[in-house]
Write a structure and sequence with these properties.
alpha/beta, Luciferase, domain 3, Rossmann fold, GMP Synthetase, Chain A, domain 3, 9-stranded mixed sheet, 8-stranded mixed sheet, 24% strand, globular
Length: 544
Amino acid sequence: MQERPWLATYREFGIPAQIAPASHSSVTAMMEDAMVRFAGHTALRSLGQSLSYAEVDRLSRNFAAWLQAQGVKPGERVAVMTPNILAFPVAMLGILRAGAVQVNVNPLYTPRELAHQLQDADAKTLVIFNGSTPIFAEIAGETPVRRVVTAGLGLAADSKLPSPPADARLTDAISIADALAAGESLPFSPVTSGPDDLIFLQYTGGTTGLSKGAALSHGNLLANCAQFALFMPAARREGEEVVVTAIPLYHIFALMVNFISYFSIGAENWLVANPRDMDGFCETLRQSRPTVITGVNTLYAGLTMHPKLREVDWSRLKLAAGGGSQIVPTVSERWKAVTGQMIREGYGLSETSPIVTFNPAAVAEFTATTGLPLPSTDIKLLDDKNQEVPLGEAGEVCVKGPQVMRGYWEKPEANASAFTADGYFRTGDVAVFDTRGFLKIVDRKKDMIIVSGFNVYPNEIEAVATALDGVAECACVGVPDEKTGEAVKLFVVRTAGSTVTEADITAHCRAQMTAYKVPRSVHFVDALPKSTVGKILRRELRDA
């Protein structure tokens, strides 16, 4: 094994090479401990509402009791499909306290995407935002779901927030307010989860076009919290931090960093339900005066262009973390000019809970890299012959560490190819280490496209587009986009005599896929470039 260049940098920065053994047996135990220790502190704020840690304790206990009364057993999958509203963290903690496994679902999914995920996870219970209920109602009969809990913008039954109504077709649904009220008078039997028990199924795109559930354990998340803490100790002061959460909680980045990691130390968390409302977002920042914010490049870029960002008091800001896609240096410079803090970039995946590398607190300037491997994490860069490349050369990022998933949910074939013979997870990303151990992503071995921090898999888009009459075959690639980092460009070969248009294809895709996956542009061609064995040569399309 080669000497790992980041170990010397650890010593220089005073960072331990390994994390200590976990002090809790599960994320549930860690969160329950926080609810007792910080009972009087404000835990969550959302749309003018707030909950203390004691209130979150009571409400999540009630939801766990209600789930148990409904027959939900430990290990059973419960899907949650909401934006960043109070229902998400309360439901999540209730699900964990009942010993169930949470399936995180994008509330903007189309019926097709939602049906696959619910079927694959065999989720019999669904917690869903009222505004998403028409999507579920379309495919409810095709899923194993038997219990539906609806949630509006407010958590209380008498909330005055203008939430959309739940779809009338869901006649047996119960509101989360009613479930919480019912649970208050129901007995609750505490469930003891261990580090090897599953906590989340985190769905990520697959080469077949269908997403796979990364099976994450309590131990995975406990480890990633501990690893992150060793890199950013000054930004994790117990009972002192104020976090703004604009990245969706159904995304593993926000779920681990913003919620689990910071809830465990008594932080006050401001949830942003709609970050596209930049005026409202900036007002949240002005009111909260955050010490910690996380985001993707597009979010930071949008904020830096908004005049109200300069009205925010940034004197308390300790950490602006970026991930999901590359942070553009000019965006970090513009952010620092306003806030005084650069954006600290990291790298991770759903399969790694998520953080693999990060720029630690001792780094004073923007590095244009994703930082150093976290403690207890080993990374090998492998060539096409599975040989480790020399320092400074590019290879596929392969990761081993306590934050790496056990595998994909019920996908033995996918798991066989996802790991090396000696147990390293193959990320599909190509990177280079510098002499100090900082990792820079230079390419993707997979054909994945990253739009505003979200993974988009060409095979899924191509499968949907090809199902449209008039499309003979197609291929898509990512092209640079100033606003979203990358955008989807679709190359289409029409069938003989077809008059299908770009508008036809866009409308068809929009009906089948969530918005960020829909091709931004469609280019018609007579033929697609292919290898001698018939494989589409996407690189030629990118260069076209």
